[in-house]
Specification:
- The chain is mostly helical and about 90 residues long.
- The chain has one domain: Irregular (30s Ribosomal Protein S18), CATH 4.10.640.10.
- The protein contains 5 helices and no strands.
- The chain is globular.
- The relative contact order is 0.20.
- The model has no long low-confidence stretch (mean pLDDT about 80).
- Bound molecules: zinc ion.
- The site of zinc ion (ZN) has 7 residues, from helix 1 and helix 4.
């Protein structure tokens, strides 16, 4: 392969943990699908299955509305690991 992939293995992390419902308050479950700027990662990068990607999308959007996750991150506020602050 000429092109190096960012994510090597492609499997659904949520299927692996047998998650049926993703809680929007459970940020540990959501952070697999969030980029460092709190954007939702596309399925082609994370390898999530379609069913779980939809659950994650809904959960992340709910978490944004409840201000658990910011909608946008300024250039000033970009940090190495944003989840350390949240927890
Ligand atoms: Zn899955």
């Amino acid at each position: 392969m000429a092109e190096r992939r960012k994510f090597k293995k492609r499997y659904c992390r949520y299927c692996e943990q047998k998650v049926d419902y993703i809680d929007y308050k459970d940020l540990n479950a959501l952070k697999f699908s969030l980029s460092e700027r709190f954007k939702i990662m596309p399925r082609r990068l994370t390898g999530n299955c379609k069913r779980h990607q939809e659950l994650v999308t809904v959960a992340i959007k709910r978490a944004r509305q409840t201000a658990l996750i910011p909608y946008i991150v300024d250039r000033k506020h970009v940090i190495e690991n944003p989840f350390e602050i949240i927890k």
